[in-house]
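ok so heres the complex, three chains, lmk if somethin looks off
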Amino acid sequence: MIHRFLPLIVTIAVLVVGFLLCALQFPNFASLRVVGNLLTDNAFLGITAIGMTFVILSGGIDLSVGAVIGFTTVLLAVLIEQGGWDPPAAFAAALLAAALFGAAMGAIIHVFRMPPFIVTLAGMFVARGMAFVLTTDSLPINHPLYGELNDVAWRFDGGGKLSLPAMVLLVVLALAVVLAHWTRFGANLYALGGNRQSAELMGVPVARTTVAVYTLSGLLAGLAGIVFSLYTGAGYSLAATGVELDTITAVVIGGAQLTGGYGYVLGTFAGVLIQGLIQTYITFDGTLSSWWTKIAIGALLFVFILLQKGLLAAWTGRGGEPAEA
Amino acid sequence: MTPYSPQPSAPLLAIRGLSKAFLGVQALDGVDFTLRHGEIHALLGENGAGKSTLIKTLTGVYRRDAGTVALEGREIAPRGVEEAQRLHIGTVYQEVNLLPNLSVAENLFLGRQPMRFGFVDRGAMRRRARAVLSGFGLSVDVTAPLGRFSVATQQIVAIARAVDMSAKALILDEPTASLDAQEVAVLFGVLRALKGRGIGIVFVTHFLDQVYAVCDRITVLRNGRLVGERRTEDLPRLDLVAMMLGRELEAAAHRIAADPAADTQAGTDARPPLVRFRGFGKARSVEPFDLDIRPGEVVGLAGLLGSGRTETVRLVFGMDRADRGEAAVDGRTLRLRGPREAIRLGFGFCPEDRKKEGIVGELSVRENIVLALQARQGWLRPIPRRRQEEIADRFIRLLDIRTPDAERPIQLLSGGNQQKALLARWLATEPRLLILDEPTRGIDVGAHAEIIRLIERLCADGMALLVVSSELEEIVAYSRRVVVLRDRRHVAELRGGEVTVDRIVSAIASEPVPAGPEGAPA
Amino acid sequence: MTLPLPGPAPGLLRALPQYGALAAVLLANWLLFPDFFSIRLQDGRLFGSLIDVLNRGAPVALLAIGMTMVIATRGIDLSVGAVMAIAGAVAATMTQAGWGLPAVLAASLGAGLLCGLWNGLLVALLRIQPIIATLILMVAGRGVAQLITEGQIVTFVSPGLAAIGSGSFLTVPMPVVITAALLAVTALLVRATALGLMIEAVGVNRLSSAGAGVNTPVVLVAVYVWCGLCAAVAGLIVTADIRGADVNNAGLWLELDAILAVVIGGTSLLGGRFGLLLSVVGAAIIQAMNTGILLSGFKPEFNLIVKAAVLLAVLLLQSPALTLLLPRPKGARPPLGPPLGPPLGPAKRESGSVKP
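and the predicted structre for the whole thing:
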């Protein structure tokens, strides 16, 4: 038991210990306000990372998510501000577009047996390009509903609040945990990531699952785009550049194997929060420079990759690979 | 466990006249096979006999050209393993086709999880998994990932999945290949219990001892044809081996006297050995063995498929690392750390799996031929292009490699010519010991003879050869000494006049001595 | 080689698609912009759109040179953009601190080599998948670069260093000269030694190569080290060109362009045969398309979509699924294994040693 959850436990322990250390150093740190902000600031990242977790669990990768977020914000801005759409209709259109985009990539990956890395790289170009074609400017969204939605929050004593983005994140997280562990689709994803051929022999619908997982990732990236546009109140084609990298990092820190088959949605969530924590710490500290975030995250990534490599070897007893050299 | 109600009218599985050809090669030729309720039926045969083609055609992985398959009298034509499973034929492969990253329970119920309110009922799944496995005498943590359990446990889980998915016939393809003796015993317990429940089991294996330990009936295939079906008790080992190898033996049973290894040193040959292995072996791969090879000598390794021949030569070349015993070259003890070291010592190795471990497919014949020589020289001392061409052309001529030119990608050559190019790769390094694993496998008759002639010529030139081959005549033709293996042990060493096909067959078929390391001479 | 022409075709013929594509793009540019091919000499340096394409394409071409060999071993290096930033940061910071040009160059290139060594060790010794191994430096590298410049855009005044970016040599812009030189040195290094053969052998079949005695770990480390060096040179050029190190933007997303250039150049992502010159041609094609879109009056925003279309088209041509569908001349890549498989006796090892 300990063994199976070890990567998850380590990640959560890192998060908790990190939080405690921060709290020891800065008295204001351990407050609902900080926690609430942590969730709000990282909501779009968390939602995207959950989608990425599913893709990585299935043995794939999705480099297009950052671009899809950027495209979604631009699409929303254009539809609402220039097209006069109601935000809910625009939201629906954006979600549909993002999901279809993901589905198309999944279909190409499956039908042409092309590496997901390269197909979603092309997808990234396409999504970013379409956003650019719509507009290269940063378009503010001034619809009154945006203001109202941004005021939606569950407030606590002491200035803390759970904003709408944070709530969306938590709801998505809960649904994702259920999807991963209490549905056949979830089991099929793990199976596909474990060994595609075996999964096929055991009756897993490979085509459907592959297309579905990229659709899901696209859909969640679209949702993250909506959250991001709420958060920034604008549509910008360069929004969320590099988010694909942050999400992949969160997934790995969260204990998933990039080769697929091992990992937890909850771990990814912790991974996102660890990244947010490092950033918050650096903000609190005030003297530390922002680049330490990247270096610290890179170091964490390295440690976690090594940890998993060791664990995987221990689990499968695959100590003796063929001799080389 | 539900009690079994037999339907003795029709056999469980009746295969009649099954045929399958690949690109004009008849892999299965009108084969009949009958599996009865409650029996364990060994399906035996050497390489190319058609065992796996039979299984794959039966389950519909390959489409059959002709023939019928009937389950309890009803004709079926599944189109794949999964559909066969729904038609009550479960298949379990040697490389367990389950998912090591999923839990035991999830593996058992993937695709048919118990559901409640539209969601997977994990509690029910765990309970049912425990119940199913307890029927197989297995009590494990069903929530732990399958990959953490031994291969034997994984096999049993795979069998449990197949049986629980209502298999009446169970096909086990080399289930014991990577199990140790104790695990085999556990597995056999499970098989006997299943047999008691009326399930019919097709058991594909290379281990004759296991056939005699657990099987009721034996069907032997050879070259895609049915050789015969016998009850196990009616078929002496020697006859079985003769059926598998396809030869009539004049004298029924020569029992060869155990050949004391002391002979190895005390033999007529006083020259110091080039290589000398003592107690060399690797757990789960091949039992510790002693082996000396002298310059200019050809040593053959004979045995059935899976007897440890390939494992032996891989250890000798350092492809796999031995975990016990010692090796000495020119009288100097050393550790064989890998192929690079073996090559430095003057070894060469043509592996059995040419495609995966031998050729570098997209590279040209020339590049493949010079690769080992170049690797030994190091990258800083490139062999000039002209010299490469000379070497390639020389060997293409010498070995009569059929290729339009040396620049053709080696993957486009026929198997025999690929093999010759690999031989050329090593000959170019002027090795002192060349190891050939099945050098004539999958090669047409003409090339076959050429390769044998070549082997003879090579040893005349003073090179030592260690050759694995399933072709006994071939081994007898060129070997001065033959080491016979059975069930991962070196069981006999024949020399001089003893090197005959009959003696080899007898050694392969000899009864195991119950106790003591009879296969590992002191 | 996975591009359509099979077998032992002469080099030029095999490379026809690439040269054809380059010619087509240049021709299109010329049609849109009749002055495209006009070149004039001014202040001892050549100017013109064509020169511009080469000059601006230099960083990606440099990255592509290193990336080609990494991809030939069946790997990938995502960190080259970050390495560019590091090399630029080192050069700018040291120049600002008053170091001489030789020391600056040595330190900057040394940083690139070190980065490559790190990647190589992770891939070869720890056996981490290349995409993951190089992801670490991709994430952390820019942070390291910022650490070096302390987050500032470090500008410098150094005619010597600046000349690397904007100078010229015999009228040819310096970046073009450097790219050509590095291409020549690399080609010499791999083709005049046995390294090229070993890189291809490892990429096609690591197991067979190891069995033939190729020192696979050393080959792998070598290609990543060289890739790091190429990235450092590219970083130097970019830094020298703008006379400063902008670590946030230097080399940003260029790893993707480099991979694209290699793919367009016909080196398969599955490893094996590689063509250094063709990758540089690939980089030129990308840059010519950029320039063409700019000249044609289209918004530069279309650039990415065109790039994606090209990427998908090239990949589709190489897709194993598609190759199965199309009739191929005898001698092309054989169809993938199943479902036919070898007719007699499956090609698997004898028992025991096969671990599930």
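quick notes: The two ends of chain C are 32 Å apart (CA to CA). thats all i got rn
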